[in-house]
Amino acid sequence: MKTNLLRIGLRLSLVVIALLCGVYLAWGQENTKVMHKIYTNTYGNVTIDCPSEVEDGGSFTFKIATSTGAYRLAISQAGKNFRDFSWDDSQNANVAKNITGTILIEVVEHTEIMIGEERYMLEECSAMLPPSQTQPTSSSIVLKSVVTAKGKHYSLNSYSGAYNRYANITSITLPNNKYFINPYAFSIQAGLTEIHAKAIDPKNYHIMEGAFGEKDLSGITLYVPAGSKADYAASTPWNQFKEILEEPLPKKYPVYVVGYGVASTDAPDSIARGQSLTVNITLEPGFKSFEPSVITIPGEEVNKDVVIQVSTHTENVLSGISYSIEYYSSKRILSWLPRYSPERSDHTGSGDCRV
Question: Do residues 193 and 215 make contact, with C-beta atoms less than 8 angstroms apart?
Fold first, then answer.
């Protein structure tokens, strides 16, 4: 009898111990935190103040400081674009809750330069032409597709109306390669009497809806390259101009190599129309390209400014996750969310948006 009672007591003790262990293990599992790493990539004079990790399902804040106060920002979570965050009055970025993966914050600083009376914002290998704050002294504006600063070239492939409100401007010249004319770019331009379109093929210009607004184009003269009048006359909106006149083609075209991470090239400053071209390209350490280091341009394509766009990428490994960032001319292969300081609220950029 006594033996049976001992056995029963032992069994009950084991059951109680098992139950206590189960409760302890369950409690331990509930209180084990799953953490996600936070990584940063910066370009230019940029600092990011942020934690190194965040709890699963949690949130965090970070603050960005740059020397110019203007930059682009991209955030990804587990390799996918992440835009679920907001800004507070102290310029902290409050990332929303429910963080479920590794976070990567990337910031690219904008640098401002002046070329004559023109103000440009530069980043990596692209340029933007923000609205001009002062009336130009010249009545003629020549729009650039490439901006050169400190020995490097930056592509600029669109115009958003930086000089639209100035009535003293009577003439505007468009570049001769692919170029976007954004909505309302010429919607005011009260004094405009002539446009010089330098592209041989009018299809090189992508005219966005509303680019000329309600402007009556019948009072504006269009100048086009020799031999291309018929093509312009057959396409919209060019066929709405007062008249179309032809201009001589240039004998030479400038040569530019555009690419983030390009260290040096042997490209000439210019080349004769119709002459073939071979260029050797050397990249900076840490950069790679899917393209050959030697690029050849056939002579039949040398009928406009030669802009060699080098696609480059960098590779890194974060916590066992390999990723690459690619650059191609003015287009960053990431979904960027621009961010500018409150003092620069005048900036609309080329294809950018206000936040």
Answer: no
